[in-house]
Amino acid sequence: MSIVYDRTKTVVRRHVAPGEAVPLHPEAVGFAGHYDFDIDVLAAYRPTGKGRVERQVLIVRDHVLSGRAFSSLEEMDAAFAAWVPRRRNQIHKTHREVIGIRAARDHAALKPLPPTPYLVAERHLRPVGKDCLVAFGGNLYSVPARKVRPRQLVEIRATKSQVMLHSTVPDASGETLLSAHPRAVGRGVRVVEETHWDGLPTGKVAPRPVR
């Protein structure tokens, strides 16, 4: 139902005085909304409120890695996989339950994941040029000329491999996606789907009628 976060920059936009509402990062709010949980920001100087997640690193280091050498990542993975069943049969020192039994009960209490994962992306607002191209990262990406107007602001959602351009207002069907392109490598690249230019003015002036 909720996840406790320390005051990391990916969750908290800025630090505030005690008692004031904590301004959350919009991407963190979107992430929490997608997976349907509440963000619980830990109070400042409250180390006992945090889970002991860092302790797991030391446990794996001491029980799996210490004093051993591995010739490959696969060999290291195999050593970890062989150790996990032994660890899950142990009694946890905090809640005094068998770790594997407690884990099964905890997993059963979790809500199901949504059908699609949350898209982690850079988000920017950019204007559309007269040639229905949008500048991002030193490159240009096309949007359909019939769906936009010059200087209209569109939202860019960029991952490592893809650039998606969205309207800031949904259309009649509730859709906002205008176009999606592979992310260009380097700078000065024009990534264009030629059908997007359908509807652009040709630049030719119609002749005046003769009277």
Mean pLDDT: 89
Number of strands: 9
Largest sheet: 4 strands, antiparallel
The value of Rg in angstroms is: 26 Å
The share of residues in helices is 10-25%
Instruction: Give the percentage of residues in beta strands.
Output: 15-25%
Order of strands in the sheet with the most strands? 3-6-7-8
Distance between the termini: 76 Å
SS summary, helix count: 4
SS-derived structural category: alpha/beta
How does the overall form come out from the CA principal axes? Answer: elongated
What's the SSE pattern? EHEHHHEEEEEEE
Oligomer: single chain
Low-confidence region ranges: none
Q: How would you describe the overall organization of this protein?
A:
The longest helix is centred in the middle third of the chain and has 16 residues, at 73-88. This protein has helices spanning 26-35, 53-65, 73-88, 99-109; strands at 2-5, 38-41, 122-127, 133-136, 139-142, 153-158, 162-167, 177-182, 190-191. Strand 4 and strand 5 form a beta hairpin. The strands form three sheets. The protein has a four-stranded antiparallel β-sheet with strand order 3-6-7-8, with no helix packed on it. A three-stranded mixed β-sheet has the order 4-5-9, with no helix packed on it. With 211 residues, the protein is an alpha/beta fold. Helix 2 (53-65) crosses helix 3.
